[in-house]
C-alpha cells in the first residue's frame, strides 16, 4: 500500500485550523438542486405518509430543511424500521433509494412494520456532492453525544423525540471512486496524517456491527441485492476497504464506537449498505434499485423470523 503527502490545502503533518477549513469551503459549489431533486419527491409522498420537518441546517436554514417521513397509523404492537439516506450527501442512491422504496414498496410492508425514514440527512452535502458538511465535519462519524455535526444531531433528536424503540435500522450509502481520489486524501490532510492509498471495491457490500453482527440477516440482504447488481469481491488481502470480510460482501465495524449512523439506536438489527455507482456494469437506476432490494431483503428476513 502506497502513501501520498500532497493536498492543495494545509501544511503536511499539521491538522487544519479555521483558515484551512475556510479555504476548503471556498472550493465547494452548488452542483444540483435539493429542492428540485429531493423535496419535490418528498412532497409527492404526502398523500400516503406523514411528513415532518425535523430540522434545518444553520448554514442556510431556508435552503436546507431536513424531513422525516413516517407511515400512517403507527401501531405500537408492530416493530419500527428506521431508514436513513444521504448521511453523506454525495451518495446519491442512498437518498433516491430511500424515496423509491417509500414510493413503490413501503405500503406493502405496513401490515408488519411501522416506518420512519430520513431520506436526506445532509442536504448541503447533496447539493455540493460532498462527504463533509460545511464545517469540514463528517456526519457519519458524528452520531455521538454532543455531536459536532448538526445534520447528525438533528436526526438523532428527531428519532429520540418519537419515543419509540427502533427494531431495525438500515442506513443507505455508496462507496465511490471519489472516496479514493478526493475525500480520503482530504481527510488525511485535514487531520495532519499520511494518506494511505486503498482500492475501491467493484460492487455492493454491507457494513454490519461487530458487536451485533446478525450474520444471517446480512446474508439475506446480500442474496436479495445480488438479483439486482453484483456483490463486491475482496481485494488480494481478503479485505474490503481495509477490513476483513466476514462473509461474501460483508464487513463489520464497531458502529457505536466510530459514531456511525447505523449505531445510534439500540436496534436489534442494523446494517449499512454500500452501493458502487461508478461501475460500468450499473446504471443510476440500478443503484437505486439495489438500495430498495437491500431494504426488501432485510424486511423479508425479519418477517420470516418474527
Q: What's the arrangement of secondary structure elements?
A:
Layout: E1 3-4, H1 18-26, H2 34-43, E2 49-56, E3 65-71, E4 80-85, H3 92-104, E5 114-118, H4 123-128, H5 150-161, E6 168-174, H6 177-191, E7 195-196, E8 205-209, H7 215-225, E9 239-240, E10 243-244, E11 250-253, H8 255-258, E12 269-275, H9 284-304
Parallel strand pairs: 4-5, 4-6, 6-12, 8-11
Antiparallel strand pairs: 1-7, 2-3, 3-5, 8-12, 9-10
Protein name: Peptidase
GO molecular function, one term: zinc ion binding
InterPro entries: Peptidase_M14
Low-confidence stretches: none
Q: For the record, what CATH class applies?
A: Alpha Beta
- The total domain count is 1
Strand order of the largest sheet: 2-3-5-4-6-12-8-11
Domain Peptidase M14: 30-306
Family: Belongs to the peptidase M14 family.
Protein name: Peptidase
GO molecular function, one term: metallocarboxypeptidase activity
Could you characterize what this model shows?
One of its GO terms (biological process) is proteolysis. This is Peptidase. By secondary structure, this protein is an alpha/beta fold. It has one domain (3-304): 3-Layer(aba) Sandwich (Aminopeptidase). The chain contains 9 helices and 12 strands. The protein has an 8-stranded mixed beta sheet. The protein is globular and about 55 Å long. The N and C termini lie far apart (45 Å). The mean pLDDT is 96.
